[in-house]
Amino acid sequence: MADRKRPRRTRERIVENSLSLFNRDGAPHVTTADIAVEMGISPGNLYYHFRNKDEIAAELFKAFERRLEGLLTAPAGRPGNVEDLWFFLHVLFEAMWDYRFIYLRQDDAAGDGHGDTFVSKHGRRRRHARLRS
Questions:
Q1: Which long-range contacts (CB under 8 A, 24 or more apart) does 9-15 make?
Q2: Could you tell me if residue 4 is inside a domain?
Q3: What is the CATH number of the domain that holds 40?
Q4: Residues of the chain with pLDDT under 50
């Protein structure tokens, strides 16, 4: 009997497809309806897993943060060297490319080039949440 892969769950697929669409089109230009259509699921199915696009974006940001956390640990038991630095930069830029929508200007309605990035918006929300608690 051939080994079968566990089917990916819908929530994971939503996150993966959203990342692809956000990177391709920019997060402000992607709607939850776009994500559902791309996946071939109903909008209700998407809303069962995420209340809105901001929740999906926050999930992606957490995944990006988790990916970077592993990079911030120095090599154990020995000093770092040039190869470690090269590897660090390679993996860092690879992660930044995989989550490039985070670094793109998200809203430039005024057309002045001063739109916020997802990072600045998300960071501002986190600071406000900490201040309220």
A1: 10/41, 10/45, 10/49, 11/49, 11/50, 13/39, 14/39, 14/46, 14/49, 14/50, 14/56, 15/56, 15/59, 15/60, 15/63
A2: no
A3: 1.10.357.10
A4: 109-114
Burial of 59 (0-12, 13-18, 19+ CB in 10 A): middle
What percent of the chain stands above pLDDT 90?
56
Residue 110 lies in a domain: no
Other C-beta atoms closer than 10 Å to the C-beta of 128 total 10
Average pLDDT, rounded, for the chain: 83
- Residue 68, H or E segment: helix 53-69
Residue 92, in any domain of the structure: yes
Phi, psi of 105 (to 5 degrees): -65, 130
Q: How many domains does the chain have?
A: 1
Residue 33 within any structural domain of the chain:
yes
Q: Is 105 helix (H, G, I), strand (E, B) or coil?
A: strand
pTM attached to this predicted model:
0.73
Q: Three-state SS for 44? A: helix
